[in-house]
Amino acid sequence: MSTSVGKPINRVDGYLKVTGGAKYSADFNLPQLAHAVIIQSSIASGRIHTIDTQAALLAPGVLAIITHLNAPKLNSVPDDLKPVQGKIGQQLLPLQDEIIYYNGQHIGVVIATTLGQATYAASLVRVEYELDNPIIDMMSLLSKAYPPKDPLGLGKDAVRGDIISGLADADVCIECCYTTPIEHHNPMELSATVANWNGDKVTLYDATQGINSTSTIVSLVLGIPKQNVRVLSYFVGGGFGCKGFTWSHTILAAIASRFVNRPVKLVVTRQQMFTSVGYRPKTLQNVTLGAIQEGILTVIRHHTINSTPLYEDFAEPCGSITKMLYECPNVEVTHRVVQVNLGTPTIMRAPGEASGTFALESAIDELAYALNLDPLELRLRNYAEKDPQKNLPWSSKSLYKCYQEGAERFGWSQRNPEVGSMRNFDLLVGWGMATAAYPVYNRPTAATVQILASGQARAISGTQDIGTGTYTVMTQIAADALGISVEQVHFELGDTQLPRASSSGGSSTAASVGSAVYLAAQQARDKLIAMAITDTASPLHGLDKTQVQVKDGYCYAEAQPQIGETYADILKRHHMDFVEVTSELEANTQKQYSMYAFGAHFAEVQVNPRTRTIRVTRFTSGFGAGRILNPKTARSQVIGGITFGISMALQENSVLDEHSGRFITASLADYHVPVHADTPAIETFFVEEQDTHINPIGVKGVGEIGIVGSAAAVANAIYHATGKRIRDLPITGDKLM
Ligand code: MOS
Q1: pLDDT, position 521
Q2: Which residues share a beta bridge with 35?
Q3: Residue 351 near ligand 1, beta carbon < 6 Å
Q4: Is 50 exceeded by the pLDDT of residue 282?
Q5: d(CA 448, CA 40)
Q6: How far apart are CA 41 and CA 232, in angstroms?
Q7: Are 83 and 151 a contacting pair, CB within 8 Å?
Q8: Does 153 score more than 80 pLDDT?
Q9: Probe ligand 1: pick from 349, 466, 508, max atoms within 8 Å of CB?
Q10: Number of H helices, E strands in the chain
Q11: What is the rounded CA–CA span in Å between residue 523 and residue 516?
């Protein structure tokens, strides 16, 4: 398979996107559509004393107001639900009682004929509270940290060897505390749901990374069969994790629509996105590293604490990469949580890997200086030739090549190791580097491929395109496996009535859906070839299937290409409209290999010594991520991840008011996401890898690995430029004063 796969073709949905033809969830303006607006708690702890909806109900256009006083009773999601079946964003269900756990908690929903009417009426709802003292800052409560109950299993602790003897063996030891702030995903597209009931069935147009997760969760919460909840999501304008699980607004939209017996649209406002769809929690990470003088690690200890709400545990799995990145006999990784009056955090682009490698890869840099070793050299001396935690060989690992080629392209050998020694006129120049790694996830997926009598093909899977290029790469895979051109393939996704696929998270979609599409297409091709070679009317009759090739839909004898016929010929002769094959793939099953993508980042910063303005001026990153299906969309993914990492290093910070527990940066004016002017030209490359162990197409996934380690590379460059080691993100100019 290689006619289209591996080529940087344009997005097949690009035309629809740039012409406005791509319909996102909030674009479905159904007839009789009503609009819902969420009412949120303005306190962080306590209870609702009274909620007065009288004036609001009399406002023009208002159809209904739902609060805990008249909301239907909802079912909680069972504890034993497997994450691959679906996951609710937070266990706390909306409008079930008067108790307030955090500021911004959904306490009501107003439904009106127009959005303006609903918004105005929502402002008329008067709420009186009994106010308790909220706990907002986890730093005052660190002694109360406890091991989380972690249903995702990502924040698992790990130990190998013996920390005490590892510390005793070290010639040089560093112990540092790193902190990362709350961050919000801020995708361009707001979360939104359009709900429409028809009898006892509901259709949801939902901005989600997981249509099947949403269908499962909504059906469980409402107590109706899963097949009665159809979820559609054709285009998603970015998710980054905040659309990975099913949140309260989707449930509220479904309830609201049933309440008023009309289709209802609920769009979470930009401000509400800060309190409605999760966030990356604040972390406090203590890292201890020890090494002998030659730079061989003897001990790695990584203890993480993050905040969690009062009603459930969420652990940011910061130690997940620490466990496996370096060869080291003595390792201890722990995760603890502290309860505060905030909503539930969630996964955010490389949850744990991104936040954890900021600490780990900064600490490795600190150790390199303590040992007087080049930071790249220190990493090479501790290169893990197999997974040291699982004690398994890697399915493939090209990290060495990423380091080598990255260093070469960047010019790392020209680096003067002395801090503050490099200049560009009066600007301080710093060079830093860091490592990236991200696991390979194969998630359960089904896909169907049909070869049509027209000679075209249709491929379908109930997956999502969250902006990553799913439509495009699946089209490429199907086209190559069938032996037809991409123009002849139509790939459909985003409907729970299609063969079931998993959520698009964990950088798993290309690998999982791609494998299912590949196998289904290959079998569909084989099926047609079998029909030909067993048919006396076919010119290919009597050949063995291995003697038949397909190109542009023409099946021919390899030895005599003039002998052959098209897919269309075969189907028409059999009076068939199409043949189809469905392929189903399980989750990761093999246990003989440890499967990761790896990468290396090299960053240059320039710091103004007077104003302390920091600019990232160059960035070079290389990745070994298995087969690259489309270098253009893959590059977009990794430069997106790196941009996330640069802004994690320098900009992003969700600031809380410590008294009210309210986010005071709840807009794109106050919460700084990077724009082009903040971002340098990013040079990326992929090391060719042929990994036959991970899945049938050898794909590892590239959605998240770009952010892993990139914040540390920037922080390390800033240290090199200025001699200031900032362990608290974001690194703003004031911290360099
Ligand atoms: Mo990603 S945080 O797995 O959506």
Answers
A1: 98
A2: 112, 265
A3: yes
A4: yes
A5: 43
A6: 30
A7: yes
A8: no
A9: 349
A10: 15, 29
A11: 11
Measured from the Cα of 347, ligand 1's closest atom is 2
Distance CA 298, CA 295 (A): 9
What is the distance between the alpha carbons of residues 252 and 230, in angstroms, rounded to a whole number? 16
Pocket residue to mutate for ligand 1, from 154, 242, 704, most atoms within 8 A of Cβ: 704
Residue 663 lies in a domain: yes
Assess whether 558 and 656 both reside in one domain: no
Q: How far apart are CA 388 and CA 393, in angstroms?
A: 9
Does residue 503 register a pLDDT over 80? Answer: yes
Same domain, 215 and 107: yes
- Of the candidates 596, 552, 661, the residue with the CA atom closest to the CA atom of residue 390: 596
Q: Please state, in angstroms and rounded to a whole number, the distance separating the CA atoms of residues 420 and 437.
A: 29
Contacts with 477 (C-beta within 8 Å, 6 or more apart), sequence order: 1, 5, 514, 517, 518, 521, 629, 697
Least confident of 121-125, 292-296, 673-677: 673-677
Does 182 map to a domain? no
When divided into structural domains, the chain yields a total of 3
704 part of the active site: yes
Ligand 1 mean position, distance from CA 704 (Å): 7
Whether residues 619 and 554 fall in one domain:
no
Say whether 619 sits in a helix, a strand or coil. Answer: strand
Binding site membership of 315 for ligand 1 (Cβ less than 6 Å): no
Q: How do strand 457-460 and strand 283-291 relate by DSSP bridges?
A: unpaired
Give the per-residue pLDDT at 707. Answer: 98
What is the Cα–Cα distance from 329 to 322, expressed in whole angstroms?
Answer: 13
d(CA 710, CA 413): 20
590: pLDDT confidence band, cut at 50, 70 and 90? confident
Contact (Cβ atoms closer than 8 angstroms) between residue 514 and residue 633 = no
Give yes or no for residue 124 having a pLDDT over 60: yes
pLDDT level of residue 82 (50, 70, 90 thresholds):
confident
Instruction: State both tokens at 662.
Output: 């309210």
Sorting pLDDT into bands at 50, 70 and 90, what band is 147? Answer: very high
H-assigned helices in 488-544: 509-533
Q: Which domain holds residue 264?
A: 31-132+188-238+243-276
Closest CA to 687 of 400, 353, 373, 270: 400
Query: Can you tell me which atom of ligand 1 is nearest the CA of 506?
Result: 3
CA of 635 to the centre of ligand 1 (A): 18
- Ligand 1 in reach of 236 Cβ (< 6 A): no
CB-ligand 1 contact for 707 (6 Å cutoff):
no
Query: Which atom of ligand 1 is least distant from the CA of 508?
Result: 3
Out of 534, 564, 585, a domain closes at 585
Alpha carbon nearest to ligand 1 atom 4, residue: 241
- Same domain for 53 and 193, yes or no, is yes
Per-position b or e across 328-350, b if 16+ CB within 10 A of its CB: bbbbbbbbbbbbbbbbbbbbbbb
- Within a domain: 626: yes
Residue 278: name the closest of 362, 350, 347, 178 by CA.
347
Give the torsion sign (CA, 8, 10, 12, 13). positive
Q: How far apart are CA 606 and CA 423, in angstroms?
A: 8
Q: What type of residue sits at position 630? A: N
For Cα atoms 88, 248, 704, give the angle at the middle one, nearest 5 degrees: 55
Final residue of a structural domain among 585, 615, 630 = 585
Percent of the chain with pLDDT over 90: 96
According to the model, what pLDDT value does residue 683 have? 98
DSSP code for 655:
P
Q: What is the spatial distance between Cα 371 and Cα 158, in angstroms, rounded to a whole number?
A: 27
Does ligand 1 have an atom closer than 6 angstroms to the CB of 244? yes
Count Cβ atoms below 10 Å from residue 32 Cβ, excluding itself. Answer: 11
